[in-house]
Amino acid sequence: MNTATGLSLSGLALAVLVLAANLRRWWKGNRDPKDLAHFGQGFALGALATACAGGLLGWLAGCAPGIANSGGQKGVSGLTGASPSSPIARGSIGSLTEEGAVVVAIFAVAVVWSWRTAKKDEKKRLGGGLFCGSTLCATAGIAGMLTWLPELVNTIGVQGRTLAESQGWL
Q1: Is 123 a member of any domain?
Q2: Which domain holds residue 80?
Q3: How far is CA 18 from CA 72, 109, 169, in A?
Q4: Cystine design at 38: which of 6, 99, 125, 140 (Cβ 3.0–4.6 Å)?
Q5: Which residue from 51, 46, 24, 52 is spatially nearest to 135, judged by alpha carbons?
Q6: Contact at 8 Å (CB) between 99 and 154?
Q7: How close are the terminal C-alpha atoms of the chain, in Å?
Q8: CA distance to 27, 40, 44, 74, 95, per residue, from 70 (Å)
Q9: 46-104, pLDDT tens digit by residue?
């Protein structure tokens, strides 16, 4: 993961605006949990991408704070004339084991399949969730709240491996 780019306050503001836009549509609607499914899939994959040590997901998660900073700085400076750029406290949700990485890879393929079959608005929500997950998990607070997520994925991976070995599949 690219740890050189910290999230700035204006980048955080942009990520929170994307989150609020997605939650507002759900809140104004019928508040059916399934209406959050695409955003939630993207958010979960974005959050898990921050736990990836490298690869495409790790690279994307490393780029997300820089993209948020650039967009947020343009928006804030365009509206106020101020140019905020100092990074806020950075966090980490943890790391993946070999088994957890396999689970994340399978989940990533499932999310891509979901994106390919989704309607235009659902694709936007999934992309917004991916952006929010990978950006907000760069903050110490959100990362601290989600430290259980890589542990859960790692445990699922170990259980899957144990099942496969006990059945003689491996």
Answers
A1: yes
A2: 9-161
A3: 11, 24, 44
A4: 125
A5: 46
A6: yes
A7: 31
A8: 29, 24, 23, 6, 27
A9: 999 999 999 999 999 999 999 999 999 999 999 998 887 788 999 999 999 999 999 99
Residue 139 CB neighbours (<10 A): 20
Q: What is the pLDDT of residue 6?
A: 85
User: What amino acid is encoded at 116 in this protein?
Assistant: R
Strand partners, 139: 90
Q: Which of 131, 160, 6, 151 is nearest to 60 (CA)?
A: 131
Over residues 3-42, the pLDDT tens digits come to: 457 899 999 999 999 999 999 999 998 999 999 999 999 9
Are 137 and 46 in contact, with CB atoms under 8 Å apart? Answer: yes
pLDDT, average across residues 136-150: 95
CA distances from 123 to 39, 41, 117, 135 (A): 9, 11, 9, 18
DSSP label at residue 8: B
Give the tokens for residue 19: 């989150």
1 pLDDT above the threshold of 90: no
Listed in sequence order, the DSSP H helices in the chain are 9-28, 37-49, 55-80, 98-117, 120-136, 140-145, 148-166
Number of domains in the chain: 1
